[in-house]
Design brief:
Number of helices of chain A: 23
Strand order of the largest sheet of chain A: 12-13-14-15-16-17-19
Shape of chain A: globular
Number of strands of chain A: 21
Strand content of chain A: 15-25%
Largest sheet of chain A: 7 strands, mixed
Structural class of chain A: alpha/beta
Oligomer: homodimer
Helix content of chain A: 40-55%
Distance between the termini of chain A: 18 Å
Amino acid sequence: MPEAMNTEATTDKRVEFRVSPDRYRHWKLSTDGPVATLTMDVDEQGGLVPGYELKLNSYDLGVDIELYDAVQRLRFEHPEVRTVVITSGKPKIFCAGANIRMLASSPHGWKVNFCKFTNETRNGIEDATASSGQTYLAAVNGTASGGGYELALACEHIMLVDDRSSAVSLPELPLLGVLPGTGGLTRVSDKRHVRRDLADYFSTKSEGIGGKKAVQWRLVDEAVPRPRWDETVTERAAELAGRSSRPEDAAGVELTPLAKTRDDDAIRYDHVEATLDREAGRVDISVKGPQNQPPADIAAAAGQGADFWPLAVTRELDDLILDLRTNEPELGTWVFRTEGDPGRVLAHDELLLTSASAGDWFANEVLHYLKRTLRRLDVTSRSLIAAIEPGSCFAGSLLELALAADRSFQLAGVFEDKDQDAEPATMTLGDINLGPLTMSNGLTRLQTRFWGDEAGYEAAAKRRGEALEAEDAAELGLVTFAPDDIDWDEEIRIATEERASFSPDALTGLEANYRFAGPETMETKIFGRLTAWQNWIFNRPNASGPDGALRRFGTGQRAAFDRRRV
Amino acid sequence: MPEAMNTEATTDKRVEFRVSPDRYRHWKLSTDGPVATLTMDVDEQGGLVPGYELKLNSYDLGVDIELYDAVQRLRFEHPEVRTVVITSGKPKIFCAGANIRMLASSPHGWKVNFCKFTNETRNGIEDATASSGQTYLAAVNGTASGGGYELALACEHIMLVDDRSSAVSLPELPLLGVLPGTGGLTRVSDKRHVRRDLADYFSTKSEGIGGKKAVQWRLVDEAVPRPRWDETVTERAAELAGRSSRPEDAAGVELTPLAKTRDDDAIRYDHVEATLDREAGRVDISVKGPQNQPPADIAAAAGQGADFWPLAVTRELDDLILDLRTNEPELGTWVFRTEGDPGRVLAHDELLLTSASAGDWFANEVLHYLKRTLRRLDVTSRSLIAAIEPGSCFAGSLLELALAADRSFQLAGVFEDKDQDAEPATMTLGDINLGPLTMSNGLTRLQTRFWGDEAGYEAAAKRRGEALEAEDAAELGLVTFAPDDIDWDEEIRIATEERASFSPDALTGLEANYRFAGPETMETKIFGRLTAWQNWIFNRPNASGPDGALRRFGTGQRAAFDRRRV
């Protein structure tokens, strides 16, 4: 069915990802020493888009934006928190998953973008557990279905109330004709190790499984009778907190409101600026390096709070990616440039690296946040191009933008007309490119780039710290093309115009394949295998056609399926 | 666009996969001692379906059926062949890939099934190289585009003629708005280790890349000037043959014509029988164990030729899977039963295992063929159910059918009404389940089943050789359910009826995820990530809609794209 025939449940207003706990409509965040509690209590009337009610703790993008904000703040603002309990504020229901009317009435692109963000937030929950000593505990105090159970699956430990009615379930397939696509299938098999035939049965049984059987089948870790519920949750939260090495007496770093101006033509932050060329379908993104050398030590950096350059620039990039992905689907190519002093970038990186390896929590958080933000870029369905010009600072952490790009261009020499005495454009590998900023395949972008070419990797890595001009960078395989002044504009113009002439869908598929050479992880399986199948299913008449299961749900009419297996 | 509006280029006749070299229309197979040559010379008028001409050595399913047959025969009928040269019989063109008019006019399911079979054949080429000492050499004596280059990519060594006009290319994205989906993207990045940005550029450049640059970018292994072409091909073929340990003087085993009767209701071979229940959307498949003990040794087994039970039953299963997949898309559930003596199955397995580990080429071929056939089952988009009843022989190699199933049922006890004195149903693990029959994820089905549960795996493996009744098998996690006589029919009826009521697409996605827990390989990436994205793209209006690139190709009109990135 053509998408234009859908009742599109999108809003005319731009979606805004900046939020703070005092404005949450759907979540309550409270802390009690080392234990924080995130209580989901969705406001039925608080949907982001008109046309549906968020009943039974079902969620839409707006609910998940608040969850993402809370997960981020817990890491930065609450160094003392070691366990995060996710639970429900509604009786008998933990969470009913993504709102079905919202899904049914959304155009394809909205569904896909929504699922991607939801996936990223759940990956962030697992990253907090794995990298930050902030362990998530799902206190499933009522039925958790679909995305509700998928939220629990992202937690390290799942407790289910054992009351003969509460169950966990993945009813997407039997009820909606789609997959549990927000990590559900992958986490059931690859994280919780539910046997494949049991997983198959479970995923077709819409009422789900509770009690001891849920434990036996590994769907949850424990089933706890209601009378012992509160005390057991408290006990478990304390146990999990005991495993953490987060500091007890550090002061948190407040994620103060992000300064942003936004109109149809540009998005501007302190360090990041994007200009939107609708005709060309292109966004030009410029990232400014730090104005100063880094503070003397990481304590002073934490004292700068959200203004500390690496944190500030990461927050801005994060917000920009989310804004453009959600609000500007027709701008299919993003061109990255940087501006500033490479040495200062590397000095900031160095402070982060040495402090994090000395065990500093704040440096660790900034590094992992940068890692997550770059991973968000990797799974963004836009063509990414880096343009390395004189005056730029593609060094260390900022070089990752070029390494994340599908193609990169570095000017050989200088712009003769503009500034013939300028220093030529350079790029500089730093230690930060060799370790902590892994992609979701578990490798660095540099390793992925040289996958299967050990000698190429070694030759490049050996030159770290060196400001490489275009010819060297091209020779080492660190940049795709190194045109000179005469060809520069033309080459970049052709690359972006050509990109705009191709099928946007085919580009998405191409990039999703080429960006992830080498090993696979649960995360790449979720974004690759699971998401790709889900997107296919979302597009099929059996789900989204007028007689499809997703559209017919709740109408009293059964779906009419084309029975041919594909 | 509804599929019904397509001009469907499928034939009313059933597709038949049984073929032999004397009936090839598109390939010539010749051998010269240790070197075989497979020459592609496609008959333009020989399309499987009316409506297109197979120009420029482009191919359709019929062309690939012959290729598959040749690859199989080379392994069994030609133990002396150590190198297989794939080349073209047409001047200046190696192969133009899948026929575009065929693709454009095919319904979605046909495209997907065609690509799956093509992928399997290419994986089989790699399996011959890796497991059989029969190394494939692509002698690309003209331009290889799209699927033509993908065919070359499946070969171990790629030679390209260096004549200033011949090139390799993946023009799918720029010309057709789809992916090089028959392994192309995955093999470029993960097998040939082409750097991701170069791969990206290459895959958007429709004219492709030839000469030295193709070598530098690792797209081919060598570029050879035309004057030195023949001698270099001969030289390289001899070198590759030198690596092999295939026997010099063994007699081949002829793959004699497979006896098969086929009508609307049943498909029958000597050892395999399938009854087709169109109302229920189900196929009941029965596999007969060997009638006798195995021959005394592998030489005697080879003397039985294609009648040797393991080879015969594998050939029949292979043909049945292909027939049902292609000709019966509406029969969404396959129920496997077996019949015979488990001891005889295990004795045949044992002969294969001991002979293969002693270096016997024929035992090795049979084992790998069984492995490939079971892998074909794993990627089949049908729900698989195993029903283990009294008199069955789910042991060793045949137990793999139950381990491949999405769910299995084993009768606890006997059918009281039918034969109350029968021996209860059993299943038996054999050594063959613990090693050679790996899935495409590189693990055995047993390892995949117990992925993340080492203790469960050990407990099951320890019981090998033991005839396990239902309660034991269920306790060990080797079977999903163990109903008794009273519940048996009802449980299987409910399971199959329920399956038939679900969205066929969602089932395909579910199964494609749950069947492949654990590690990923190039093969799982091709069937998971790459294929799923391709299927999504095939479904999108930007490719297959009336204004899409695939439909508009060759009309002189440019495609009209919905520019929104998803």
